[in-house]
Amino acid sequence: RIAERENLEIVRIFQESKSAKNPGREKFNEMIEFIKQGKADAILCWKIDRLARNPLDDGLIKWLQQNEVIKQIKTFDRDYNADDNILLAGIEFSMANQYIRDLSKNVKRGNRAKLQKGEWPNMAPLGYLNENKKIIVDKTRARYIQKAFDLYATVGYSITEIADILFKDGFSSRKGYKYHRSKIHRMLTNPFYYGVMRVNGESYVGNHEPIISKDLFDKVQSALTGKHHGKKEKHFFAMRGFLKCEQCGCLLTPARKKGIVYFYCTNGKGSCDEHKKYLREKDLEKSLAEKFNDLKFDPQIVEIAYRAAKEKTNHTKSYLETAKINLANRLQAHKTKQQRLLDGYCEGNVAGEVYEAKSRELKKEEIDLKTQLAAIERKIQSKLSTLEQTKKAFLQAFSAEKEFLEAEDGRKRKLLEILLWNATFQNQELAKVSYKMPFQLLADEPEKGDFLKLLRGWDLNPRPGGYEPPELPDCSTPLYIDFSSAVNPCHS
C-alpha cells in the first residue's frame, strides 16, 4: 500500500524467514549484495528491527547508509534517510538487539526454573508425549525404547542391528521411515528415560515416569564405552556363558556346523574327556526348559498368598517411609557439604580447581540421591507395587518353561539372565542347575502343593494347629503373565 501510495518502484522482493538474532541470513546477504551492485538504493520493510537484531548486520546497514549506498529505509511509520542524523536509526537497532538478548535471557531463566521443578520445557523425546503441559509415556513407543535398551545390554547386538530389529517390529517415524543408527545411539545415551533431565551439562530430576531403570541405563553406558561390550560376536547364542561342564568346570562353547548349533566343553584345563561330546542346542534348550518345572507353584497358592500379603501393605509402606526419611536426611547433609565447600571457596580457603572438581562430584551424588528419593516416593504412591512384582515373580516361574521354548533368542537370553546362574552337563545330560535368587528358593521348596507346610518356611507368624486355610479362589480364568521384572518374593 505504501509503494502504491507513494509511487515507489519495487525492483525486487526478498522474503526472509530466519530470525534476525544471528548474522548469516542467506536472503539478507543476497539483498545486501543486490544493493551493492547498484540495482537498488532503498529498502522498504515493516519495521527497522526486521532488518537487523545483531551488531554485525546493524553495522553493515549503517555503513551502507553513511556512504549513501542505501539512500533511504522506509517503514510503515518512519523514513530513515542517508543525509539525516543516523543516531535515531542506531538507537532503534540497539534497542532491537537488546530486546532479543533480554528475551533470550528470560527464556533461559524460565526454562531453568521449570527444570528445577522437574518439568521438561521442550518437546518430549521419543517414547514420550507432550500433553497439557506435562510429559506422559507414549505407551505404543515406550515398549520399543525398553526393548532397545534390553537388546544392547545383552551384548549380542550392535546399534545398527537393533535399529533393524525395531523397524521389523513396527518401530518407525511418523512417516514410516526406519530410525537411523544415530537416533538409536542418542536414545541409548539419554538419561531422560530413567528419570533424569540433562541440559547444558547440568542434570535435573524429572517428574515424568521413567521407562527404564537406572541400573539398565548404567549397564548400557558401560557397553557403549566398551567396558563390558568386548569383541562383537559374529553369531548370537542365547545360552553362551550359562552352560558349564560338570566334570572340569569349564564353560561350554557354541559352534555352528551345517546350520546346526552345538555346544561342547572347552577343556581349558586339558584333563577332560567331555570336550569330545557335542550337545545340540535344541536338546539343551529342551532339557533346561523341563528343569524350570522345579520353580512352579500352584497359581491358587500364589493367589492366596497374594491376598494375605495385601493385609501387610501398611508394614511395607512404613518401611518405605523410613527409607524416604533416611534419604531426605542424607540429601540435607549433602546440601550442607555443598554450602561448606562454597563458603570455603568464597573465603579463599579452597582453590578454584579443587572447588570445581569437588562441586561436580557433589552435584552427581546429589542427583543420585534425588533419583533414589523419587523412586521411593513412586513406590509409596503405589502401595501394592512391590507385592504385585512379587506375584509376577511366582507366576513368571510358573510359565518359564513355555516362555523359554517359544521365545526368540534375545528374549531367551533375557530370561536366563533373570532366572539362571549356570547349568552343568555331564555325559550329554543335564547334571545341575543353579538359579538366581529368589528363584533358587522356589526350586529348593519341596512342598509346593501344601499351603500350610509352605507357610512354615515363609511366614514369621506360624498359625496354631487348628488353622483352616481360606477357600481356594476360582482359577479357571486364564492367567496373563507380565515378564517385565522379577523381585525377591521374600521381600513382601
Describe this structure in words.
The chain has about 500 residues and is mostly helical. It contains 17 helices and 13 strands. A three-stranded mixed sheet has the order 1-2-3, with no helix packed on it. Strands 8-12-13 form a three-stranded mixed sheet. A hairpin with a 2-residue loop joins strand 9 (about 250-255) and strand 10. Helix 5 (about 140-155) runs antiparallel to helix 6 (about 160-170). The radius of gyration is 34 Å and the shape is elongated. It starts with a helix and ends in a 34-residue tail after the last helix.
Helices and strands, with pairings:
Elements: H1 2-5, H2 26-36, E1 42-44, H3 55-66, E2 72-74, E3 79-81, H4 87-116, E4 128-131, E5 134-137, H5 139-153, H6 159-168, H7 181-188, E6 196-199, E7 202-205, H8 214-224, E8 243-245, E9 252-257, E10 260-265, E11 279-280, H9 281-291, H10 299-310, H11 313-346, H12 352-381, H13 385-398, H14 400-406, H15 409-419, E12 420-426, E13 429-435, H16 439-444, H17 451-458
Helix pairs in contact: 5-6, 5-8, 9-14, 10-13, 11-12
Could you give a quick summary of the protein structure above?
The protein has about 500 residues and is mainly alpha-helical. It has 17 helices and 13 strands. The longest helix has about 35 residues, at about 315-345.
Judged by helices, strands and strand pairing, the structural class is: mainly alpha
Low-confidence stretches: 457-470, 483-492
Oligomer classification:
single chain
Q: Give the C-alpha Rg.
A: 34 Å
In DSSP terms, counting alpha (H) and pi (I) runs of 4 or more, how many helices? 17
Q: Globular, elongated, flat, extended or rod-shaped: what is the shape?
A: elongated
- End-to-end gap: 78 Å
